[in-house]
Write a structure and sequence with these properties.
The protein has an 8-stranded antiparallel β-barrel with strand order 1-4-5-6-7-8-9-10. The protein is mainly beta. The chain has one domain.
């Protein structure tokens, strides 16, 4: 067999070998992707589940503490020109003394105090709306006082009023809107406290059997009302923290007594009735913690 037929011409043997190699490579080229497609593909990791929204439904108990700012407005009236004090036949106040004393004993007094205690309640959540009821009982040692002086017919006098309370109870509904772990709410309902009022009058010597003086007091458990609003945040586990504002108002407490001339005796002595009514309003800002069962 002749290896070459001419210059630059390949032998039929070499050409056949090359055709054979191309024939073997072509199936391998197309088989590669097919085999790769048959290899197992690693599945993507499962998605991380979203955290469940906080649910406010349930009973809870907690503690609270804060400050209270109270204002009381005593209103005093004194009779004149007629004896209205039991056992006395002559008036101690001759007009216009009664009006002057009454004006001095009327005004405004205010003070602030610590407030703190505990609460218990229940919430029911429906979609994002939250409805609930809360009872709380707090120490509420608020004391207010005022003193005024005046001059009647050249005689100076002093009249003093005070009002105090020791505790506060409220029973309130709550309506709010939950933004997952944040609850914004409004609240309102009944408020109860004890009011203790004390008043006194002293002068240095009216002509009518003076000098004169008197003290009149009263105490009563009073019903009132309260409204407010607050924010509450859920914390780890079943704990939550809150801040709250309340406006509280109570009705008037009335006290009656007599101003008598200490220089005169009963029967023919000098005396006049005097009365003071006083109410109480308070603003409360407090923070607290709750544990939900």
């Amino acid at each position: 067999m002749i290896a070459r037929t001419g210059y630059g011409q390949r032998s039929p043997m070499i050409a056949m070998k090359r055709r054979l190699l191309r024939g073997l490579a072509l199936p391998a080229f197309f088989a590669g992707p097919a085999m790769a497609a048959d290899l197992p593909v690693k599945a993507p990791p499962p998605p991380i589940p979203a955290a469940a929204a906080y649910n406010w439904t349930g009973f809870y108990v907690g503690l609270n503490a804060g400050g209270a700012w109270g204002t009381a407005d005593p209103n005093t009236s004194a009779t004149c020109n007629v004896s209205s004090a039991p056992g006395f036949s002559n008036p101690y106040f001759v007009c216009p003394a009664g009006a002057i004393v009454g004006a001095a004993g009327s005004g405004s007094m205010s003070n602030d105090a610590f407030i703190g205690g505990g609460q218990i309640g229940y919430n029911l959540q429906s979609n994002s709306a939250v409805y609930g009821m809360e009872l709380d009982f707090d120490s509420f040692n608020l004391k207010t006082a005022r003193q005024a002086t005046g001059l009647e017919s050249g005689t100076p006098f002093t009249i003093t009023s005070s009002l105090s309370t020791n505790w506060l109870f409220t029973a309130r509904g709550r309506v709010g809107w939950a933004f997952d772990s944040l609850l914004a709410y409004v609240t309102g309902g009944l408020a109860v406290t004890d009011l203790i009022g004390s008043n006194s009058y002293r002068d240095t010597g009216f002509a009518q059997g003076g000098p004169g003086g008197g003290t009149w007091t009263a105490s009563e458990t009073k019903l009132g009302w309260t409204v407010g609003s607050g924010l509450e945040w859920s914390l780890a586990r079943n704990w939550s923290a809150k801040v709250e504002y309340l406006y509280v108002k109570f009705g008037s407490l009335g006290a009656s007594g007599s101003v008598i001339g200490t220089g005169g005796g009963g029967g023919g002595g000098y005396g006049s009735a005097i009365n003071t009514s006083v109410d109480l309003t308070a603003q409360i800002a407090r923070a607290g913690f709750n544990y939900k069962f």
